[in-house]
Amino acid sequence: MIPAAELRDLTVDVDTGRWSERVLDSVRLVVPAGRITALLGESGCGKSMVAAALTGSLPSVARRTGDVCVTGRVGLVPQSGVTAFAAERTVGEQLRGQNVEDVCKAAVYPMEALDLYPHQHSSGQIQRAALALALLAEPDVLVVDEPSASLDRGTAYEVWASLRAYADAGAAVLTITHDGALLTETGFADSMTFLRDGRVIAAGPPAEIRALEDPYVAGFFQ
Ligand SMILES: Nc1ncnc2c1ncn2[C@@H]1O[C@H](COP(=O)(O)OP(=O)(O)OP(=O)(O)O)[C@@H](O)[C@H]1O
User: Fold this and answer.
1) Which strands, in side-by-side order, build the sheet including 20-32?
2) In terms of residue numbers, what domain contains 25?
């Protein structure tokens, strides 16, 4: 299996001048092509920092050691979809390309909303617009921060199914999520990695992870 993206002993420290913190500590993570790798963990444990490291967008106050290896082009769907768009132009003006209809369908984005400005969307709608925007660029490595956070269960299922199809077409997909239950029920994820306080505390196929008798991990499957 080809690791399209990999973190090797990644440690990230942030120092704002007023406070400093180790936000990632010796993180090892492999994101293979053709697979969905899910990253889970409590709020503030460092998931978005992993996404930032993989997409070359760590904050300026961050210092890192260790290696970040990415093969091919990487795309990011940020946690807040609205940040993927310029505020002063409609989403339709920014979602341009031959495959717009296809990517909107894959992202379950309602095309009738294309004429709206980013801030005129609901958070679930703009998140799906951001996914459509990322898919338009056909990245080899797709990092999606909370794809189903603002979605009802049915729409979340459709979005996950599209991510599954995108991985099956050959891409390496890393998804940050709290939705362990849906992922194991549907079988959409190939592997899961759990972070706690910036450290990887469990990683493996969903069935193995699900069987762990760790209250921290189990909390994500309720
Ligand atoms: N731009 C930044 N500058 C400094 N520190 C930051 C910055 N962004 C995040 N952090 C810190 O890094 C740590 C990890 O944050 P991160 O956003 O990766 O958490 P997360 O697991 O994605 O949380 P959530 O599930 O709430 O989104 C937190 O302690 C946070 O305060």
Assistant:
1) 20-32, 3-15, 62-70
2) 1-72+176-222
Cα 49 to middle of ligand 1, angstroms: 6
Residue nearest to atom 9 of ligand 1 (CA): 49
Q: Residue 90: CB partners within 8 Å, gap ≥ 6?
A: 114, 115, 116, 117
**Using one digit for the tens of pLDDT, what is the confidence trace for 43-80?**
999 999 999 999 999 999 999 999 999 999 999 999 99
What's the pLDDT band for 1 if we cut at 50, 70, 90? low
User: CATH no. for residue 46?
Assistant: 3.40.50.300
pLDDT per position as a tens digit, 13-37: 999 989 899 999 999 999 999 999 9
Residues with a CB atom less than 6 Å from ligand 1: 14, 16, 21, 23, 41, 43-49, 59, 61, 79
The interface predicted TM-score (ipTM) is: 0.96
For the chain, the domain total comes to 1
